[in-house]
Amino acid sequence: MTSNNSSNKSKLSAEAKNALHNFKMETAREVGVNLKEGYNGDLTSRQAGSIGGQMVKKLVEKAENQL
Q1: Rounded CA gap, 7 and 10, in Å?
Q2: How many other CB atoms are found less than 10 A from the CB of residue 2?
Q3: Taking Cα atoms as reference points, which of 49, 51, 46 lies closest to residue 30?
Q4: Is the pLDDT of residue 66 over 80?
Q5: Which residues have CB under 8 Å from 8's CB, separation 6+?
Q6: Which among 43, 37, 13 has a CA at the least distance from the CA of 25?
Q7: How many folded domains does the chain comprise?
């Protein structure tokens, strides 16, 4: 792998990580869970599950619409 290729991969990973973070924060707002930047260990399992479940639901809907 060339250094340029490595640089592109690193940039893509950073962009993907940022997009996923934004998606999670947006989804948390939609389901009424107040996420803060950084550690959120005070969330209940129900709150965390509602965020993850809603994220999966939205991703499945998007995939179905693209078929």
Answers
A1: 5
A2: 7
A3: 51
A4: yes
A5: none
A6: 37
A7: 1
What is the dihedral sign for C-alpha 25, 44, 31, 35?
negative
Helices (H), ranges, 1-67: 3-30, 45-66
Segments forming the whole domain that contains residue 35? 3-66
pLDDT digits (tens, 9 = 90+) for 9-62: 777 788 999 999 999 999 999 999 999 999 999 999 999 999 999 999 999 999
Rounded Cα distance, 48 and 57, in Å: 14
Determine the pLDDT at residue 25. Answer: 97
Residue length, the chain? 67
